[in-house]
Specification:
Blueprint (H helix, E strand, L loop, with lengths): L1 H16 L2 H7 L2 E6 L5 H9 L11 E7 L9 H12 L15 E2 L3 H6 L3 E4 L7 H10 L4 E4 L6 H14 L3 E4 L6 H4 L10 E9 L14 H11 L3 E8 L3 E8 L4 E7 L7 E6 L3 E3 L23 H11 L8 H19 L5 E2 L8
Parallel strand pairs: 1-2, 1-4, 2-3, 4-5, 5-6, 7-10
Antiparallel strand pairs: 7-11, 8-9, 8-13, 9-10, 11-12
């Protein structure tokens, strides 16, 4: 943690006395990746290790990765080898700048020696508590790729370790920072958000580690647009749809249509005091005059990458533990409602407090 803070101060001072590119090259914030069976690991190496990186992406370097496997998670070994090969061969094109190669290590301990902050991308969320505990106790600021954990108990435990060690930690879906979703909260054609109906995929064949958070992308979209404050939830489940209705403390209502059959598209309809509008679609911008852009710059993981970059350089967590725990509590309430044939279930707050 001391090295992380020292690097941040050094970076800021250097930026004032020399060109920004020189300051970044001199002493970048070193980032380690724990688990690479998630394609996001490759994406962020391309963004952060690009020698021509500018703005938020400059001044960072993914230095090491530990390709830990999950023996009973579907295709963990296959995906790890696939993304490892791609990560080690990024931009090896004649004439292009050579992206600094990521060192592959064989233990968490070796990884932690080579970095100032960590991203966990293990697909098997059952591993996240043990992984996060080791990282946080080593004093390394941490981002955990979605989902934070496979159980609400593990989610609480991770943030408890973060509190005890005073080392920041956060997690979210990349959908939260897709401009077509985040831009709906203050959309000129919508005004104050009064309600929102989101839709997205709901995988009935999800791995056991993912089952408790199958609708996470869309629920993150719902929270991005509506904000936190859910007090009760109901859930209706059929072979083709998982339908969740959430009621906020101020009386607003948001819904999630989890698509089990048919085309699994991701977007939302937003209701406001000025108007009603379709949201953008994942990776693209907000609608203008009711038209959703698709030929603008595709952001993909870029929005989340910007937020992580700011965090790794010493910024605050972009999504609070309280909001993330509320999302996990919503899934718990939805499960309870489903078991009670769609009964309305009060949201039980998840907290790290004793």
């Amino acid at each position: 943690m001391i090295r992380f803070l020292t690097l941040f101060v050094a970076f800021a001072v250097a930026a004032m006395v020399c060109p920004i590119g020189e300051a970044q090259a001199a002493d970048p914030v070193r980032i380690g990746i724990l688990g690479i069976d998630n394609y996001q690991a490759v994406e962020y190496v391309q963004m952060y290790n690009n020698p021509k990186a500018e703005g938020d992406f400059a001044g960072l370097r993914v230095t090491a990765a530990y390709p830990v496997l999950s023996p009973d998670y579907p295709k963990s070994a296959e995906l790890t080898e696939m993304w490892k090969a791609q990560m080690l061969n990024i931009n090896k094109v004649p004439g292009n700048p050579v992206i600094p190669q990521v060192e592959m290590v064989t233990s968490v301990e070796e990884l932690l020696k080579r970095c100032d902050a960590v991203m966990i991308f293990s697909l098997d969320a059952r591993m996240h508590l043990a992984q996060a505990t080791a990282v946080l106790k080593a004093g390394k600021p941490l981002y955990i790729g979605r989902p934070l954990a496979s159980t609400p108990e593990d989610a609480v435990a991770i943030f408890k370790v973060s509190e005890e060690t005073k080392v920041p930690c956060w997690s979210c879906s990349q959908h939260r920072f897709s401009p077509g979703f985040s831009g709906m909260r203050d959309h000129a054609e919508v005004g104050k958000v009064l309600g929102c109906d989101v839709y997205g995929g709901f995988d009935v064949k999800a791995a056991e580690a993912d089952k408790s958070t199958r609708g996470l992308h869309s629920i993150e979209t719902l929270y991005t647009i509506m904000g936190p404050g859910v007090v009760k939830v109901s859930c209706t489940s059929t072979p083709s749809v998982e339908s969740i209705t959430a009621v906020w403390a101020d009386g607003r209502v948001g819904t999630f249509r989890g698509i089990k059959e048919g085309a699994a598209k991701y977007s939302a309809t937003v209701f406001g005091d000025k108007g009603v509008s379709t949201a953008g679609i994942y990776g693209h911008g907000i609608p203008v005059n009711g038209i959703v852009p698709t030929n603008d710059k595709y952001m993909g993981y870029g929005g989340l990458a910007i937020q992580m970059a700011k965090f790794f350089k010493g910024g605050p967590v972009p999504v609070t533990p309280a909001e993330t725990l509320e999302i996990h509590a919503l899934f718990v309430a939805a499960d309870a409602s489903r078991a009670q044939n769609g009964a309305v279930v009060p949201l039980q707050k998840l907290t790290t407090a004793k």
